[in-house]
Amino acid sequence: LQSSSDSSSPSSKIHVVVVPLPAQGHMSPMIHLCKLIARDPSFTISLVNVDSLHDEFVKHWVAPAGLEDLRLHSIPYSWQLPLGADAHALGNVGDWFTASARELPGGLEDLIRKLGEEGDPVNCIISDYFCDWTQDVADVFGIPRIILWSGTAGWSSFEYHILDLLEKNHIFHSRASPDEANAVIIDYVRGVKPLRLADVPDCLLASEGQEVLKEICIKRSPVVKRARWVLVNSFYDLEAPTFDFMASELGPRFIPAGPLFLFDDSRKNVVLRPENEDCLHWMDVQEPGSVLYISFGSIAVLSVEQFEELAGALEASKKPFLWVIRPELVVGGHSNESYNGFCERTKNQGFIVSWAPQLRVLAHPSMGAFLTHCGWNSVQESIANGIPMLGWPYGGEQNTNCKFIVEDWKIGVRFSKTVVQGLIERGEIEAGIKKVMDSEEGKKIKKRVQNLKILARKAMDKENGKSFCGLQGWLEDLKAMKLDR
Ligand code: UDP
After folding, report:
1. pLDDT, tens digit (0-9, with 9 covering 90-100), for 391-414
2. 398: Cβ below 6 Å to ligand 1?
3. Among 31, 60, 117, 404, which is most buried by a count of CB atoms within 10 Å?
């Protein structure tokens, strides 16, 4: 499929093969990036998924405006990775990455070779940071790899310091006790402020499957140096010292490129779950700034007990709430009886959906605060809409994001424990809601996040935004490379 406005043959275009990590939080920014590339008629894009996901993806795929010409390909993979998988269904992350590195390079090589034989040679690979195996494939064909880093620049500095963290025995050893994790201060990760061991990305502290993960992380960390560009889905004014440090190590190829979703005025994520847009009508009749939005992203789960404490707190808070309850959110399922009672009692107070049009929810005038698991997309979307946060991290690097939110940027509050560390009782949840929505501190938080909203939008300004101009810069670089070949 070619753009009707451009009659040039496919091979005269710059053909980029895009390899996302098959998870919602990584797919969303990658698709936004594709939309940005597709604006330039010099490019043609092939999106590569793994087999099990591809079928589901194609079934639900409605090309968003601007991506009508996107080609969809798949490569064989033995793991079933439905996008609707919860944290448990995904299994051991270490095994998953090991299988990817073993199985996927051959499939991608075959695909790139085939495209070349069909007269449509591939000029570069754009892939998620965690698909580091794509660098070897790029090297086989002598083409550049461009990394999309879909977390904070701060997290990338942790990845960059993996050997130091290991040497000091701060990661991948048996978990420190909560007291120790709070007492030990990590002050040698350059570009980020000193923080407690407890705030180092959870995925690096992981004890489960740690030997496999440890090896993967050690191998992955230096691969970033071989990439032509590293596009970071964050913005300079939010993390200036980290961007400065990483650029001093990796050179000007390490660039702020976010918030990517702001580039696209449609405010739509490409998702594989049906979005319930009725909630927007419900929001239309709520008071401005009054709604508490609760979402745990696409993977995090809650115990039945925790779910009930949260429900009890929401009810007691009397705040209008919009709550995303994915079908698999509660491990083992919630009790119908108490859930139905909750729904009945709060039918005039709240609205429940199984998946929300989050970008439009956060932009709605009735939004007040976001109780979030601190996945980076959710956090950045909240910032770019000026919405204060109540952070309740689950896994990955969400604990680090939460630390940044509360201590560095001061645009939210948090509970005493993460979801996986243990039960938070309803009293604490209710107090957190009141703090972020009703207190004097809450007002200051709101002011700060409103300021960051302005900076986020400035970064993506199409005239002279730092992120936007950086993104144009690497597209021009690719064009120049193609001319040179
Ligand atoms: N999202 C959405 N509707 C929902 C929940 C989430 O559109 O009901 C989107 C959200 O806007 C974000 C992504 O899904 O872009 C979740 O990514 P995040 O990094 O926040 O969390 P993850 O799912 O990776 O844990």
Report:
1. 999 989 999 999 999 999 999 999
2. no
3. 404
